[in-house]
Specification:
Protein name: Xylanolytic transcriptional activator regulatory domain-containing protein
Radius of gyration: 25 Å
Distance between the termini: 43 Å
Helix content: 40-55%
Strand order of the largest sheet: 1-2
Number of helices: 20
Order of helices and strands: HHHHHHHHHEEHHHHHHHHHHH
Keywords: Nucleus
GO molecular function: DNA binding; DNA-binding transcription factor activity; zinc ion binding
Oligomer: single chain
Largest sheet: 2 strands, antiparallel
Structural class: mainly alpha
InterPro entries: AtrR-like, XnlR_reg_dom
Strand content: under 5%
Number of strands: 2
Pfam family, one: Fungal_trans
Amino acid sequence: MSSLKQVQDLEKQLVQAKQHINQLRSMLQERGATDLDVKAPPAPLLNLPEIGPNTERRHTPPTLEDFDHVRKRLRTIGRGIFKPPPPYRQQRPQASYSLPSPSLPPKHVADRLISQYHGAVHVYAPLLHWPTFVDEYETLYRAGTFHGIRHIWVPLFFSILACGTLETQDSFPGSARPETEGTSYVETCIQSLDLWTDELTIDHARTALLLSIFFMELNLKSAAWIWLGSAIRISQDVGLHYDSGPWPIVEAEVRRRVWWSIYNWDRLVSLEVGRPLLIDDDDCEVGWPTPVDDRYIQPNGIVMPPDGQSPPNGLIAVIPVVRFISQLKRTLKARVVAPATLDTYDAYFQSIMLSYPEPYQITSGAPLDPRLLCAATTLQVARFFLYRHNLSPACRRTFRAEYAVALVCVCAMSAVGDLRRANVACGRNLAFFLEQLIDRVHRGEGNPQQLLADEEMLAYASGDMQGCPESSWAWTGSETGTKLNSTPLHPPSDITQPQLNGDPTAGTYPHRAPLRMGSPSETDSK
């Protein structure tokens, strides 16, 4: 094992050396120099974070002895003015649910949805301590009513059921459409939420995040963006964005898991929809979660399983990727990403891949649990967005001729099929692109040189890149404002409608957000 560790360390050092060399080459290329110019101002280097956890911690104030009476007076005289910081904040008893009790779904239906949620969402966004949640869930069904349950637990429960419908595979005649069923649960969830409360808890953050995930899966991106913002603000209000405490062992670990789940979702959604990041890294200081199954997190301590017996952890696999997205978004503000910069990123991506457990590595032959595909492909999604940026008229034509890679994307799109309703719309996009391509071939304008110079075809190929404010280029010169609004509206895409109305092309929505970000709608773009 020691020799293997030495080899891995040397490989990482080699990757870092190549990264530094590529950065120096990029500096020379940007200045147009063929040798070092000592008088030229230095070009900024890519600020890529370390792969592993950051062990540095901010300095905390010293403990003051015999200060309890001062703290007590501060709580008293500060009432109505300020709240103590989260770890020292006394929570009022949570209100019990007193509204008319919503109908409980049949137990066998709830069992199915809870199981699907656990296999689809919890595997890479472990928001709940699963044994605790299961106990509360069973208690609910034994009572048969929500009365007496914590008020916030009710919307949390229905948000979990809603996300469980995203993975349903029921397709027999007469079965409820997943998005219709899920939308009903979301309506109950939102109706149950107390939006006026000033006593926010971690359950409020969980609920808001799950609503964002659900809306994102239905391609309702504005709604998803709003609820993501709520999840972030709530998590900051309850102090999830920095390690504090001391907290009880289970609570401390769950707080880290909830924070990193929200952080990951902020980065992934921001990258996909092309909107600003909502979390500033400088404001955060949270240790990484412990990569163990929930059953090992116990009140008396976290029990580490024997070496080799811990299952791959989807949350831990995603964290190293999302931590460099802030730098990636800065890179994507340039008109063109230079080849040397691409090489630097590729070396960095390789170092991340080397840090992964074997099932996640591209070259590994070890079997990968399909439920972990989302986490395993997140790195490739980031690479996709980086390279896709050069699919524009500003980039050299030779950089845009990635035909073999485009076919791989189309194959992935074909494999998804109608399991994702978004993929049906992407298929129409691809069919239109091919019609235009065939038409040009028939007109004698379809040779590679002509196509590379055809900006109209490039716009069609770029797909949903044209829906991103940071990367779109086809809209410049279009009417805007009142002039644009005076023209007839195109009918809204049926992909944004939660009600399917019996559409035979409708399928289910497997929860694979990072995979979707780099697939259907963007595979067309090649």
